[in-house]
C-alpha cells in the first residue's frame, strides 16, 4: 500500500527540458549552443550537489561564451533568464495539494541553490510536507544515496513510496532500491499510474 507520494520538480512541477535548455539560451542570447552546453555539462553536477553556487555556475557559462565568441553576458543575466523559463505545471501542483490531505507528500529533485527563488515565485512546496534537494544533501539522482535519503525521510518501506520523474534514468535508479517509480510523461498518464498503484483522493 502506498503511503508516501514523491514528485520530481523539473518536468513535473515546473516546465523543463534538459535537452532543449541550452538551445533556449542560444536562441535568446544569439550565441552558439555549444558555448552553453560545454559549461552546462561540466558544472551542472557541482551546482546540483552544492559544491558551487548557482551564480558561480552561470558565471562559468558567461566566461565560456566570452571565450568562444567575445560576447559579454553576465552570469546574473543568464541566471535570471533561467528562472524566467521555468513555469509552474498547475495540474500536478493542484494534484499534489489533494494528495497531501491523505498521504505524506515529498519533493525529490536535482536542483541548485536557486530553488528558494523558484519556490518563492511559484509556491511549489506548499503542497508538500518536505523537500529533498540535491544541493542540500550533496547527492543527486540517480545515485543511490539520494534515494536512501528519501526512504529515511519517508519513514516507510521503499515499496510504499510512489515516485514520479520525467527522466527514465532517475526512475530506474529509484526502482533499484525497491521504490514504486514511474516515468512522468503527461498528467493523464500520472493519474492512471497513481490509480494503478492504489492511490485514491478527492
Outline the structure in words.
With 202 residues, the chain is of the alpha/beta class. The chain has two domains: 4-15 and 87-196, Rossmann fold (3-Layer(aba) Sandwich), CATH 3.40.50; 18-85, no CATH class. 53% of the residues lie in helices and 11% in strands. It has ten helices and five strands. The chain has helices spanning 18-29, 33-48, 54-69, 75-85, 90-100, 115-122, 134-137, 144-154, 168-176, 187-196, and strands spanning 4-7, 104-109, 130-133, 161-165, 180-183. Strands 3-2-1-4-5 form a five-stranded parallel sheet, sandwiched between helices. Strand 4 (161-165), helix 9 (168-176) and strand 5 form a beta-alpha-beta unit. Helix 1 packs across helix 2 and helix 2 (33-48) packs antiparallel against helix 3 (54-69). The longest helix is centred in the first third of the chain and has 16 residues, at 33-48.
What's the arrangement of strands in the largest beta sheet? 3-2-1-4-5
CATH class of the largest domain: Alpha Beta
CATH architecture of the largest domain: 3-Layer(aba) Sandwich
Shape: elongated
The end-to-end span amounts to 18 Å
Strand percentage, roughly? 5-15%
Number of separate helices: 10
User: What is the count of distinct domains?
Assistant: 2
Major sheet description: 5 strands, parallel
Helix fraction, binned, reads 40-55%
Q: SSE order in H/E notation?
A: EHHHHHEHEHHEHEH
Could you give the count of β-strands?
5
Could you please say which CATH topology of the largest domain applies here? Rossmann fold
The CATH superfamily of the largest domain is known as: HAD superfamily/HAD-like
Instruction: Round the Cα radius of gyration to an integer and report it.
Output: 18 Å
Low-confidence segments, given as residue ranges, are none
Mean pLDDT: 95
Class computed from helices, strands and strand pairing: alpha/beta
Amino acid at each position: 500500500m502506498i503511503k508516501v507520494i514523491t514528485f520530481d520538480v523539473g518536468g513535473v512541477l515546473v516546465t523543463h527540458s534538459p535537452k532543449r535548455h541550452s538551445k533556449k539560451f542560444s536562441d535568446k542570447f544569439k550565441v552558439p549552443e555549444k558555448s552553453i552546453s560545454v559549461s552546462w555539462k561540466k558544472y551542472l553536477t557541482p551546482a546540483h550537489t552544492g559544491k558551487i553556487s548557482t551564480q558561480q555556475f552561470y558565471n562559468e557559462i558567461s566566461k565560456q561564451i566570452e571565450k568562444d565568441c567575445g560576447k559579454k553576458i553576465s552570469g546574473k543575466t543568464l541566471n535570471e533568464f533561467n528562472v524566467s523559463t521555468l513555469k509552474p505545471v498547475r495540474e500536478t501542483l493542484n494534484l499534489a495539494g489533494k494528495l497531501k490531505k491523505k498521504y505524506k507528500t515529498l519533493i525529490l529533485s536535482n536542483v541548485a541553490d536557486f530553488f528558494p527563488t523558484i519556490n518563492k515565485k511559484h509556491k511549489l512546496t506548499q503542497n508538500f510536507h518536505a523537500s529533498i534537494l540535491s544541493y542540500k544533501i550533496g547527492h543527486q539522482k540517480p545515485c543511490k544515496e539520494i534515494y536512501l535519503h528519501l526512504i529515511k525521510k519517508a519513514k516507510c518501506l521503499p515499496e510504499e513510496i510512489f515516485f514520479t520523474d520525467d527522466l527514465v534514468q532517475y526512475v530506474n535508479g529509484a526502482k533499484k532500491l525497491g521504490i514504486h517509480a514511474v516515468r512522468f510523461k503527461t498528467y493523464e498518464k500520472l493519474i492512471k499510474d497513481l490509480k494503478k498503484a492504489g492511490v485514491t483522493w478527492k
